[in-house]
Design a protein that fits this description.
Elements (H helix, E strand, L loop, with lengths): L3 H17 L3 H8 L3 H9 L7 H10 L4 H15 L15 H9 L6 E5 L3 E5 L1 H6 L3 H5 L4 E2 H6 L7 E2 L1 H15 L7 H11 L4 H6 L12 E6 L3 E11 L6 E8 L2 H10 L5
Antiparallel strand pairs: 1-2, 1-7, 2-3, 4-5, 5-6, 6-7
Length: 265
Amino acid sequence: MITENTTDFAHLLTHFRLRHGMSQGQLAQATRLSRTYIYHLESGQRHNPSPHVVQSIARALELQRDEREQLYEAYRAMTGQFVDDISSESTLLDLGELASLLVHNTSYPAHSLDRLWYLRSWNEPAIRLFEMQEELARGGLHHLLEVVFDPVQRKRFQGWENLARRLVSDFQYNTRTMTHLPEYKSLLKHLRDLPEFKRIATATYPSGKPAPSFTFQIQHSELGRLTLRTATTIFTGFSNYSMVSYVPGDQQTLKIYRLQGWQPG
């Protein structure tokens, strides 16, 4: 039997999802729940989800503080359980601040990415490794694919075609639940204007969850050829920011890193 409290929670969940422009399937992907589970929550057939599930839904829907409180109160009335919402803006670091803090306190070349793959911060080794001094000095946002598809930059990547296909596939997978957002559509329009992007994107499809690490080579104007391996830090439970570090992929690169002081002790 569906109670009034269940209906309050179910109605709020449906309301917030529709206002965010997400389908039940997209919300399921964003929260790593099944579409059937989301359907049962909205229809009132499930009336005792865990607090963790409700927090995951609130994060995926990017609910503001008042909206979260509405949803959490409906959840409490339905289940008798409380959601510990300690993410007070006045006490906890914003995920972007945390990503930046980690980037600037690691010796490895590293930068942070937001959920659409815009580069939000670089440390000095990363700027030098990718020779981005002039681009960053001009200001503005930079996108990882914009860097990789830049006609000047891409000459530095050994096996550029394979790297570009790999990154486009990973990008498509990681942003699969955001294709309805205006900012995604604007980004995609910009990316399609980049030389070669449209050709590769048209023929590339995500082949499943990206592997956590891969190797590639770049040719540096001063340091020579380097073999790099990616190491990605994902903030558990959040999809807003991640940090990518570039660690040595072979002994030659390890020696160069040590000479540059990029090898953490």
